[in-house]
Amino acid sequence: MRKILFTLLAFFIVFIANAQKITEKDLLGRWTITAMTVSGNHMDFKNCTITVSDDWQKDSPQMTKGEWEAQLKKGLEYFGTANTSFSEGSIMSFYMEKMEYGGGYHIVEENGSTYIQDDVTPGDKFRIELKNGLLYWELAIDKGNIFHLTFEKAVK
């Protein structure tokens, strides 16, 4: 009886561990940006709204809050064009306004987190998560700022 319980428990643990892994198949298709947060400032591209962080002055001390808000609103148009596509063979494309990036990638599991590793620049990787049909990216870009991007799968 103990062997059966142990076997069932081991099977359950393996099943749960595999269920949480993101695979290439999970990512296939085109994804459009729905939201972005950086330094506490939030842009909602679906509703065309922004929320300015309480400590907005650390990013732009020379501006008034109204000027900073206007600057972020300009970002709605620019960043709102972002989308990414994943194709078979581990090929990823990223588009934003006039900028395009494409190349190979692979999925890396480290310390309980999932990352996309760029095949062109091996040091470039970013954390991803799939939750409730949304794809979350966490990108460290400049000056220690971490960009949190949310994408939803585009309907064919």
Word description of this protein:
With 156 residues, the chain is of the alpha+beta class. Helices cover 24% and strands 44% of the residues. It has a single domain, classed as Lipocalin (Beta Barrel), CATH 2.40.128. It has an eight-stranded antiparallel β-barrel with strand order 1-4-5-6-7-8-9-10. The longest helix has 18 residues. About 10% of the residues have low confidence.
How would you summarize what this structure contains?
The protein is an alpha+beta fold and 156 residues long. It has helices spanning 2-19, 24-27, 65-79; strands at residues 29-38, 41-44, 49-51, 83-87, 91-96, 99-110, 113-118, 125-131, 134-140, 146-153. This is Lipocalin-like domain-containing protein.
